[in-house]
Design brief:
Elements lengths: L1 H42 L1 H8 L6 E10 L2 E9 L4 H8 L4 E11 L7 E15 L4 E7 L8 H4 L2 E3 L2 H9 E9 L9 E9 L6 H7 L8 E8 L6
Antiparallel strand pairs: 1-2, 2-7, 3-4, 3-8, 4-5, 5-6, 8-9
Length: 229
């Protein structure tokens, strides 16, 4: 009986050791797989970053500044398409708000840059199912989502024409020549975005963190100052 009892204990120990060994082996394989995945992610970051940064791009082409008479004027053309969820919301009666900004800075080596001028252009784009037209309203100030301003604006027969009016900025007055000092350096920061803050609160929450609603762009250019005569 003693021999049988000792043999049984040895068998139990052997089986337990094999069980623990298999468990440790599985844990080791899991840890190895995790470390291998992380190492591959660091070794090949481009595909990973491409998945994380799938943001609809807005191109800013031919950004130029020109002095005409007593002011400087900005011209540019934007390139973008409305993502499917944004266009669907527009067709269902949700107005879209766009914002273009041009800010002129005076460069100072001894202190922070000084903002000399900030110009804004607000757009409200809406679709009217009864007339099957797109209506675009533009203003230098924020456009309310109710009232007379909503019924005004320019009507377009198709969405492409309405968006072209948003994308094209021609001879936009951004700063007076009298505000520019000869001998100083200046640059202009141009910014454009789909203004989500103008949406109804439930829609703002629904679009939070959704890359398909992140339509924005920024570009900077030097302001050529003419020497004083």
């Amino acid at each position: 009986m003693a021999f049988i009892t000792q043999y049984s204990k040895k068998m139990q120990c052997s089986e337990g050791c094999r069980f623990r060994g298999a468990r440790f082996l599985r844990m080791g394989l899991i840890v190895y797989g995790v470390l291998l995945g992380l190492s591959l992610g660091f070794m090949h970051p481009q595909p990973v970053m491409a998945q994380l940064s799938q943001v609809p791009a807005v191109q800013v082409a031919d950004l130029s500044l020109e002095r005409l008479d007593d002011a400087y004027y900005l011209s540019t053309t934007l390139g973008f398409d409305l993502p499917v969820p944004v266009e669907e919301a527009l067709n269902k009666g949700v107005a879209l708000y766009f914002l273009s900004q041009a800010e002129v800075f005076k460069e100072r080596w001894y202190w922070y840059e000084k903002s000399v001028s900030l110009q804004e252009r607000h757009y409200r784009l809406s679709y009217h199912p009864l007339s099957r037209q797109w209506r675009l309203l533009s203003s230098s100030k924020p456009i309310p989502n109710s009232g007379l301003g909503v019924t005004l604006g320019v009507a377009y027969d198709n969405l492409q024409e309405a968006l072209f009016a948003v994308k094209r900025l021609s001879n936009w007055r951004v700063v007076n020549a009298s505000d520019i000092e000869s001998g100083s350096k200046y640059h202009v920061d141009f910014r454009f975005k789909l203004d989500l803050t103008q949406f109804p609160r439930p829609l703002q929450i629904g679009t939070l963190g959704d890359s398909e609603w992140n339509l924005s762009a920024a570009k900077s250019t030097r302001l050529g100052v003419e020497p004083s005569k």
